[in-house]
Amino acid sequence: MQSLLQKTNDERPLLEVKGLKKHFPITSALGKVQGYVQAVNNVEFTLNKRETLGLVGESGCGKSTTGRTILRLIEPTSGQALYKGKDLFQLKQKDFQKMRSKLQMVFQDPHSSINPKQRIGRAIEEPMKIHKLYDSKERSERAMELLNKVGLRGDQYYRYPHEFSGGQRQRIGIARALALNPEILICDEPVSALDVSIQSQVINLMEELQEQFDLSYIFIAHDLSVVRHISDQIGVMYLGELVEKAPTDELFSHPLHPYTKALLSSIPVANPEFKREKIVLKGDIPSPLNPPAGCKFHTRCPYAIKRCKNEEPVFKEVAKNHSVACHLID
Amino acid sequence: MNAKSIYSDEKIVSNQHQYNKEQRSLLIKRILSNRLMMFGSIILILLTIVAFLAPVIATQDPLAIDASSRLQAPSSEHYFGTDNLGRDLFSRVIYGTQASMVVGISVALISGFFGMVIGLYSAYNRYLDHVLMRICDGLMAFPAILLAIAIMAALGPKTVNVIAALSFVMIPTVARVIRSAALVVKEQTYIEALKSQGASGIRIIWVHIAPNTISQLIIQLTYVFAISIIIEASLSFLGVGIPAPDPSWGNIIYEGKAVIYNAWWMTVFPGMFIILAVLALNLFGDGLRDMLDPHSKK
Amino acid sequence: MEPLLKLNQLKTIFSTEKGKVTAVDDVSFEIHAGEMVGLVGESGCGKSVTSESILQLLNEKTTNYEGKILYKGKNLLELSEEQMRGIRGNEISMIFQDPMSSLNPVYTIGNQIAEAIMIHQRVGKKEANLRAIEMLRLTGIPSPEKRIHEYPHELSGGMRQRVMIALALSCKPQLLIADEPTTALDVTIQSQILELIQELREELDMGVILITHDLGVVAEVCTRVIVMYLGQIIEEADVKTLFKSPLHPYTKGLLKSIPHLDGDRTQKLNVIKGVVPSLQDVPSGCRFAPRCDFATEQCHENPPELLELENGQKVRCWNYEHILREAKDHAVTTSENK
After folding, report:
1. How many CB pairs under 8 A join B and C?
2. How many CB atoms sit inside 10 A of residue C334's CB?
3. ipTM for this prediction
4. Minimal CB count within 10 Å: which of A190, B123, B169, C103?
5. What are the CA-CA distances from residue B91 to residues A308, B57, B269, C2 (Å)?
6. C267 close contact with A: CB closer than 8 A
7. DSSP strand E in C56-104: where?
8. Where are the domains of chain C?
């Protein structure tokens, strides 16, 4: 392993997120701040070139907010996001708009993510127009080429979104995200609205495009088997916090955090003869408005001890690249 | 596969043509299957033709006074009879149609334009929203007709002033509708996608939100059209609208009021035209809403 | 034993602007008491329309039914609207995917459950309230005496789905139709709800039709599986047989296209080519033929029948024998190679 001093530009991670926080203020009718929803709290990870980071967790765990904060679609409360060493959060709006071409997003809902009144070719050209790239003929050619790249036909350029199925629209969404030659794609549940047989088509497409364009993905999803397939490392989130992060195989073979274990055991397996010990968690996810003190998971944790109720566990590395926030792992 | 062949121009065009054809035939089918809307549109078209061809259709000069033939009942010479000054009522009603259509269309266009701008910007900007919508609330607190009378009293009776006053009165209603439509569009994921691409606010508002509110705007404008015909008639009836001797449905009825017991035709014919126009516009508007906005359909 | 529910060549036909569309085409199956049957398929396969046809919840002006829906020997399609109301929610209940829009936001959950009980069981308000509390307790809602006074928006998604289940089960129905009951829920909550449905099925000896697109869920809780594609049943088998030796190329493809937890991550996922065609232009031969890797000329020309094999497995495919043999040969050669 190289020492820190020797790290050159190339070996620096493409994106480094440190201490990311997003607290939404709760205001009363008179505009007085009454408290904060801790949507994202102290999230940190690194993303290398051509790597995929999976972010998993249940609804309200802050995984989507994390993705949107990095793109500054939501302004962060504090923290850093170093893209090639430059802090995205410190950039002025104007400078950041230029950086946007390097970080693009693929959205969950293929039905509402494309303007229904716009021909799909135009939708793909839109980001190029916004950034004033190429002339109009080059843009059309590029849009057709991108359509081909994502497995659609160039002659579908003039069609409207409603003429396409969900899977095809998701392909259009990907083509649009690629129009600016980004390096990082933040994919927010890109396949969860699709049919099973279409999901695999889109996942394969995303893998091919990653190879072809040297892309890095932040893949946000709740379906663990999909995330496992596509990710190199996975971060598990619960109530705004990263509770465990590890390389994919490590996470699935040696999950450490009780929540990760429960999550893994609740994935339905498409094999009726596969029997396993199921950890069925008691109760509901607490409201992020009013999260429990101490370890946020202690209200549902089957192994909780007294310390968990009072003291917040620290997120620390326990094995190579394997970090966890739990009092029981010491 | 040869990439060129995939998007050769002819194929694109022919595909697109066929598709457009299908869509058009579907649209025509829908319009034809909505009988009430068909009825409304036919009457509207007829009224528009009447308004355009008023000089041709009118049998006599609407302003020509003929003291010898006052208050004559409908006959083959005067289809709708004559008024208290002996003017041919049929010609006056026809020219009145022209006046009403001009007022209605102008008001719809002007209030449509300003309502759209105000609605879109207040939907997009929270601070503007507070200011603009409070002004709209204030204006909407007055009954439209009262406000219009006040404005007309200040400006004086003139067709241009009628249009100005009605447009001003209608703007808040249109702005409200556009604002709520735009708020819905604004929450769609594609607006977020545009932001993530770095699109400017102006581009988002005019290139992406505006076209998605057009159908709501058109529906609303048919109602604005209908209401402004009624208000214009009321203003003219009260003597603050289109000034005499120019005919308008409203001022013909006003003149007929005095002789309502001896000359029913002076109030009934213009009244029927008002009812017909408003009914046609409402039927047309309802039909449009059912077609363009299927969610509100029962 | 007489089946609880028997669909006999059910056809559901919608009249649309573009002409007639047969959303459910010749569907026949049986559900017995105490059994949990999975109805799986992709969107547009007709699984939800089938369930809505059973209760005739579709717009009666634009929908035509053909065939028979026999519930305990009675044809539901011949019943009057009044008689159907006595069946809906009382003998056959349904749970929907979205628990928020299926509950009335202006009434407390207690009110809604008690009302259902009062309508169908003819009991007083007090008795109905007691039963409502009992039902909520049965679905695992903590301190139900307090919860009955809450409004739907005060509950979390998982709790709401429990309330929906309590509502659906409040009249002790004999058949429960669960349409994607856990799709909107998180995985840890999903396993709670599935477990709950299982327990209640055993306790009340209900027949359950579980409609889902998630093969994992089916494998975990169902005893029998029906696979639908473009309005037709294309395969039916007990759960073990279906997952071990699926016969229809579509079922095979589906099973292979989901990423498995123990699968090889470096390998590409298997893909079923193309997209599901629209119901307006259904292929003339086998409906799956245009997407099938095994399709022959016969497949493109003649529609296959749903055949029943010796082991009770049903399949709608011309070439299943050939495919089966090939799979066996392949299995033999690969094991030899090892």
Report:
1. 4
2. 9
3. 0.83
4. C103
5. 91, 8, 12, 82
6. no
7. 63-71, 74-75, 92-95
8. 5-222, 246-337
* DSSP state, residue C13: E
Does the distance separating the beta carbons of C187 and A196 come in below 8 Å? no
Please, what is the average pLDDT of chain B? Answer: 86
Q: Is B15 on the interface with A (CB under 8 A)?
A: yes
Strand partners for C40? C212, C227
Coil, helix or strand at residue B39: helix
User: Token digits for B7?
Assistant: 């998007």
Is the C-alpha dihedral spanning C236, C242, C246, C247 positive or negative?
Answer: negative
Indicate yes or no: CB of C18 within 8 angstroms of CB of B26: yes
Alpha helices in chain A (DSSP H): 63-70, 93-99, 120-130, 136-149, 166-178, 196-213, 224-230, 248-253, 258-266, 306-310
Q: Nearest C-alpha of chain B: how many angstroms from C19?
A: 11
Please give the Cα distance from C159 to C136 (Å, whole number).
10
Contact C254, C326 (CB under 8 A): no
The pair of structure tokens assigned to A27 is: 């205001």
A42 SS3 class: strand
Q: What is the pLDDT of residue A7?
A: 47
CA-wise closest residue to B97 among B242, B289, B249: B249
pLDDT digits (tens, 9 = 90+) for C31-64: 999 999 999 988 888 888 999 899 888 888 888 8
Residue from B280, B258, B267 nearest B96 by CA: B267
Q: Is A318 on the interface with B (CB under 8 A)?
A: no
Q: What is the pLDDT of residues B198-230, one digit of tens each?
A: 888 899 999 999 999 998 999 999 999 999 999
The C-alpha atoms of residue A170 and residue A150 are separated, in whole angstroms, by: 10
Tokens 């949107």 sit on residue: A68
Contacts of B37 (CB under 8 A, 6+ apart): B31, B283, B284, B286, B287, B288, B290, B291
| Per-residue buried b or exposed e for C169-196, using 16+ beta carbons within 10 Å of the residue's own CB | bbbbbbbbbbbbbbebbbbbbbbbbbeb
Best mutation target among A109, A150, A192, A196 (most C Cβ atoms within 10 Å) is A196
A3 CB neighbour count, 10 Å cutoff: 6
Q: How confident is the model at residue A30 (pLDDT cuts 50, 70, 90)?
A: confident
